[in-house]
Write a structure and sequence with these properties.
Pfam family, one (chains A, B): SpoVAD
Radius of gyration of chain A: 18 Å
Largest sheet of chain A: 6 strands, mixed
Organism (chains A, B): Ammoniphilus oxalaticus
Number of helices of chain A: 9
Oligomer: homodimer
Low-confidence stretches of chain A: none
GO molecular function (chains A, B): acyltransferase activity
InterPro entries (chains A, B): SpoVAD, SpoVAD_sf, Thiolase-like
Strand content of chain A: 15-25%
CATH class of the largest domain in chain A: Alpha Beta
Protein name (chains A, B): Stage V sporulation protein AD
Number of domains of chain A: 2
CATH architecture of the largest domain in chain A: 3-Layer(aba) Sandwich
């Protein structure tokens, strides 16, 4: 056993030079009007993406993200030993049908909106441990597939409070491998515990998820003897305006200062203030499309040296909500570092 | 990179002595009347398991299986670095709420009825790679939670054809760790590809899943230069009578003989012929409750030296079915070996 891979119960240290050999991002039309638009690889002008159903459109976006990631890595689907993928849809059908079409062995993941970093952490572990030469990750969400599954048909026009979040339409993918000549390094991961402080309102998921983000952040800082200042950027996945301000308060309570621009939230970064998305973006795609475009670009270009992505997930279902259960939440963190070309 | 952990694209070889330090099985009343009843750790006499809802009952069964597994291993929930768990319910709420109550870091898995072996393969990889000292796996299914989610309310009394399968009620859990003084060894895993030959009938899942089982079996035999005769027992997860006879035919077509009693199917083994379960049992619990009771006992007692468990999963959803999609399937295999006490 290479004991040093396990820093602590929750934090892993990858022993080898695990790199993002390629990453790809595809987004929907609203995301394509946001402030990060120029950094996305592909913007679909229509939420159907030329398909007959929104579910098929979501699959097309995951496929597109995968194809861009493969293309950037110079590798093919046949080179990938395994795909770690997931999405918000019941029985993660986006991942299942995408894996079928790509013919890559599948390990299906579900961590709600934190699926992006769960998949990246596990892919990195499998490559680091020598189980896979190359591992592919993928995750996606689509506003219209999520709305009709979790809430009401879009046509119903249900009103939402300002604390509600807007499920992001898009997908992100990465090719994880050893060494290589480009792409940031994945150095550490911190696996989250399920935290549930009793919030039951699905229109206030940011408030429900903030304590899980705080728990993972504090565990991460403790395990690595680090502080926010050790990172050029710390992003949460999709706490939105409400949740991220709660997170800042929770951290301040224990004397850890999360301040802009060092701290930001992907769900806020995706949209401009004049786009009507309530408290901000959410969905598996939120953390993925920001991490695999803006953050990877920033690391490659030297704008950032070290970034911590803490993807957040609300692990409830319509049935658990209807049965009066509170919303259990989780957050998984992954550290990305610039590899200097010296 | 320890290159030898990767035998091939799909097959892993664990380098260390990865053992099932404990395993636990809890089942519902119908399963408790089946031929393996004496080998189960806990039989709930009522499908509500003393809870208010079937969903809560399913969680209680997963919790019970985990507690038995921990108890047999002599370890506690605090000793577990990570829980790899999943179930059939939308957003895998059984796993999420169980992980919340156990306060073990969670990596949520979804591979439909093949979740058992996906979780065990990943848990073994994380321990083998030094990321976890001890990893816990869990999976569950419940006939009544599955019926109302995937089909009709039980009260509706819908008729089913003989090729239909009966979702097993129960849960299984394992504690995975290095060395130790008892419990079988996990030596290899073969990760499945998604196979879809175009079957669209959810009442004939065995036929849909059989080609995925064949693909994983043939890959496994090829990668390790093994044949069925190298195993004392090969079980599929839940092909049932219809699916397992198709698998035997598919294998015979390529001159690989799967014959009883060397080959069996967990979905068939759980119930006696006079129990009315159509083609046989299905569900995440099927492969888990047989593997973690009957098979682990057989390995511990010397009745078996080496067993291959190929858990099978149908990766569709009610939405994908309603949209006219076919049923993508997968199968993940894990090899368990007796460790002689010499």
């Amino acid at each position: 056993m290479r004991a040093s891979a396990r820093i602590s119960r929750q934090t892993w240290h990858f022993q080898n030079e695990i790199r993002l050999l390629g990453s790809g991002v595809a987004v929907g039309p609203l995301e394509g009007q946001g402030p990060l638009a120029e950094e996305y690889d592909h913007i679909f002008e229509d939420s159907y993406a030329g398909e007959d159903t929104w579910e098929q459109a979501e699959r097309k976006m995951m496929t597109q993200a995968i194809e861009v990631a493969l293309n950037k890595s110079g590798l093919t689907a046949e080179d990938m030993d395994v795909l770690l993928a997931g999405d918000l849809l019941n029985q993660i059908i986006t991942a299942n049908y995408t894996a079928r079409d790509q013919q890559i062995p599948l390990l299906g993941q579900f961590a709600a909106c934190s699926t992006s970093m769960q998949g990246l952490a596990l892919a990195s572990a499998l490559v680091d441990g020598g189980f896979a030469k190359y591992a592919l990750t993928g995750c996606s969400s689509h506003n219209s597939t999520a709305e009709r599954q979790f809430r009401y048909p879009t046509e119903y026009g249900g009103q939402k409070p300002p604390s509600a979040q807007w499920t992001t339409t898009g997908a992100g993918a990465t090719v994880v491998g050893l060494g290589g000549s480009s792409g940031p390094r994945v150095t550490h991961a911190t696996i989250g515990k399920v935290i549930d402080l009793g919030i039951k309102d699905p229109f206030d998921m940011g408030a429900a998820m903030a304590p899980a983000a705080a728990d993972t952040l504090l565990t991460h800082f403790h395990d690595l003897a680090r502080a926010p200042e050790d990172y050029d950027l710390i992003v949460t996945g999709d706490l939105g305006k409400v949740g991220s301000s709660i997170l800042v308060d929770l951290m301040a309570d224990v004397d850890v200062k999360l301040v802009a621009p060092r701290y930001d939230d992907c769900g806020i970064m995706i949209f401009s203030p004049d786009q009507e998305v309530f408290s901000g973006g959410s969905g598996c795609a939120a953390s993925a499309i920001v991490s695999y475009s803006h953050i990877v670009d920033g690391l490659n270009q030297g704008r950032y040296q070290r970034v911590l992505v803490v993807a957040t997930g609300a692990l409830f279902s319509p049935v658990s909500f209807q049965q009066g259960e509170s919303i259990p939440c989780i957050a998984h963190g992954v550290v990305l570092e610039r590899v200097s070309s010296a």
